[in-house]
Write a structure and sequence with these properties.
Layout (H helix, E strand, L loop, with lengths): L1 E6 L2 H13 L3 E6 L7 H18 L3 E3 L5 H8 L6 H19 L4 E4 L9 H15 L2 E2 L8 H10 L11 H8 L7
Parallel strand pairs: 1-2, 1-4, 2-3, 4-5
Helix pairs in contact: 1-6, 4-5
Length: 180
């Protein structure tokens, strides 16, 4: 199958990419992550995706929209629901890019992370796939968590310390006793 793989970051894409290729799929990467904060972090992750793609001979489609304002406007009223907004916005963009570029399916490197809500991602992906006329390829890549970490270190890729948004940055670095 010809699959468009949404990539949240270079390290998280390695294991899914290699797994999909080992199964005989033709994979192209898709980077669209307007939620990443601050902008320097966004730029570092985009650079790491380019680096990973060069090292893995992965064709890329980049949607370089840094729209922090829309992200904040959509999640500020209920930050605890922010992940759902991120999933929808990125999976929708991937489904549209897959349809517009002749892919048979799309998937997401989010499915590699043991910190993401797989049932929600799968449900949204399948719904958006039906809506856009393209298959959502669900695969649980979590068993390769340690292998992906090893590969990313071996390749010398930049490894971020939090999911990406301003709220996850706060959760990562602010001591628990100071969180509100």
């Amino acid at each position: 199958m010809k699959i468009l793989l949404h990539i949240c970051c270079g390290p998280c894409a390695l294991y899914p990419l290699r797994t999909l290729r080992a199964a005989g799929h033709e994979v192209t990467g898709f980077f669209f992550n307007p939620n990443i904060h601050p902008y320097q972090e966004y730029a570092r992750r985009l650079e790491a995706v380019h680096d990973m793609a060069r090292k893995e001979a992965l064709p890329l489609i980049i949607r370089d929209d840094y729209d922090l304002e829309s992200f904040l406007a959509n999640v500020a009223p209920a930050p605890e629901k922010r992940c759902g907004y991120c999933y929808v916005s990125r999976l929708k963009a991937a489904a549209e890019a897959a349809t517009g570029n002749g892919f048979e399916a799309f998937s997401a490197s989010l499915l590699y992370s043991r910190y993401q809500r797989h049932d929600e991602i799968r449900s949204l992906g399948e719904h958006l796939g039906r809506e856009h006329g393209v298959t959502f390829h669900y695969e649980d890549f979590r068993p390769g968590w340690q292998e992906g970490i090893r590969l990313s270190k071996e390749l010398g890729l930049y490894r971020q310390q939090y999911c990406g948004c301003i709220y996850s940055e706060k959760e990562r670095y602010l001591p628990r006793e100071k969180r509100s």
